[in-house]
Amino acid sequence: MAKQDFLRGQLIEAETLITVDDLCRHCTVRVEEVISYVQEGILDPQDDAVVPEKAETWQFHISSIKRVRTAVHLQRDLGVNLAGAALALELLDRISELEKA
Amino acid sequence: MEYKDYYEIMGVKKDATQDEIKRAYRKLARKYHPDVSKEADAETKFKEVGEAYEVLKDPEKRSAYDQLGSQWQAGQDFHPPPGWDAGFEFSGGGEGGPDLGGFSDFFESLYGRGFHRASQQAGSARDFRMRGDDHHAKVMVDLEDSYHGATRSITLQVSSLDESGRVVTKPRTLKVRIPKGIRRGQQIRLAGQGGAGYGGGGAGDLYLEVDFNPRSHYRVEGADVYLDLPLAPWEAALGATVKVPTPAGAVDLKIPAGSQPGKKLRLKGRGIPAREKGDLYVVLQITLPKAENESQRRIYEEMKQQFSFNPRAGMEV
């Protein structure tokens, strides 16, 4: 039997941090958008310095990628604004907490 | 190619106003949005609705579509009549609208290929160069796979642009190694396996999010694994050594005498073998055998006589 090649990926630990630039690149958003997400309370930068002047040095949990993408999709597809997307994200979090129990 | 009844997909009448169509779209989009919906075929439905809305929200495209006539049935074999769109001018890509890859052949035969993406690429510089998109997908594994490591073949639907700039979707199968110790919600990054770049830009990455297949007897929290273990009353009362399944194989577990239901026994380091090893918690439960014949009933009678036991003693009744 032919030996098959399997792809070996890099495991991303939940603690993995990414820079604000990585986040922008992965989600195709601009830094200004990330700032508005932080100001809305959708995203928490790691060192808790939420002032926009510090945006360049912000680091985020890897899970932020999914969060931003969901927020972008919700705004684009459902016509909700940023606050509406934030509310939906919080409710989605609560649903998944409840489903885990 | 099959005819698509966009009015039927949106659940509106043929003479619906633009406001009614928008309202129907919003309701369906919330219902089927892949980030929100729990419906089984949410993504397909969402795409279908998005395509229908793309046509019906635009008065030009809508009247061109209406021109095709009402004799068509959904699913019927369809070829656009020659010159069907004469006199219409479709003005560029729509704003808003979902973007989940290409639209159906039916849509493309009417409104042209690559239509939906055109707006995103228009206006690009001549030596336009861009890294490909990162793709995200979910992969289901068994809890046991996390204990031993495993390999998985996964098939993804990949949209890309062909030579003539059309969006084509084709299945792509990848063989991926699932590393030992993986936990729910963790991601595996496969560098360069995402969308192709444009103009010499590198390919994006593929992120696989791991989830466990639901198993009947294990619950997983982080790296810890929980197992409900049923015991006979005499095993719990007298103590026993019982065989217990674990994801790494069965083990013998000593149950101390006088164990109450709900008691947790911790098997240290027998949870998911992550960098910080999880524990396996065995949660004791007591299953009561039915008294099915006279001598079995006598044993329960005997217990009633021998124990002055009030399980509701703490309830003040």
Short synopsis of the structure:
The complex is a heterodimer of chains A (101) and B (317). By secondary structure, chain A is mostly helical.
- What is the average per-residue confidence, as pLDDT of chain B, rounded to a whole number? 81
What do we call the CATH topology of chain A?
Answer: Multidrug-efflux Transporter Regulator, Chain: A, Domain 2
Side-by-side strand order of the widest sheet of chain A = 3-4
Main CATH class of chain A: Mainly Alpha
Radius of gyration of chain A: 16 Å
Strand content of chain B: 15-25%
Protein model, in words:
The complex is a heterodimer of chains A (101) and B (317). Chain A has 101 residues and is mostly helical. Chain A has a single domain (17-100), classed as Multidrug-efflux Transporter Regulator, Chain: A, Domain 2 (Orthogonal Bundle). Chain A contains four helices and four strands; from the N terminus they run βββααβαα. Chain A has helices at 20-27, 31-40, 64-78, 82-100; strands at 7-8, 10-12, 17-19, 59-61. Chain A has a two-stranded antiparallel ribbon. The termini of chain A are far apart. The model of chain A has no long low-confidence stretch (mean pLDDT 83). Chain B is α+β, with helices and mostly antiparallel strands and 317 residues long. Chain B has three domains: 6-121, Orthogonal Bundle (Helix Hairpins), CATH 1.10.287; 135-212, HSP40/DNAj peptide-binding domain, CATH 2.60.260; 218-306, HSP40/DNAj peptide-binding domain (Sandwich), CATH 2.60.260.20. Helices cover 26% and strands 24% of the residues of chain B. In chain B, the strands form four sheets. In chain B, strands 6-7-11-10 form a four-stranded mixed sheet. In chain B, strands 1-5-4 form a three-stranded mixed sheet. In chain B, β8 (240-244) and β9 (251-255) form a beta hairpin. Residues 91-100 and 114-127 of chain B have low confidence and may be disordered. Chains A and B meet through β1, β2, α3 and α4 of A and α2, β3, β4 and β5 of B. β1 (7-8) of chain A pairs parallel with β3 (167-178) of chain B, so a sheet runs across the interface.
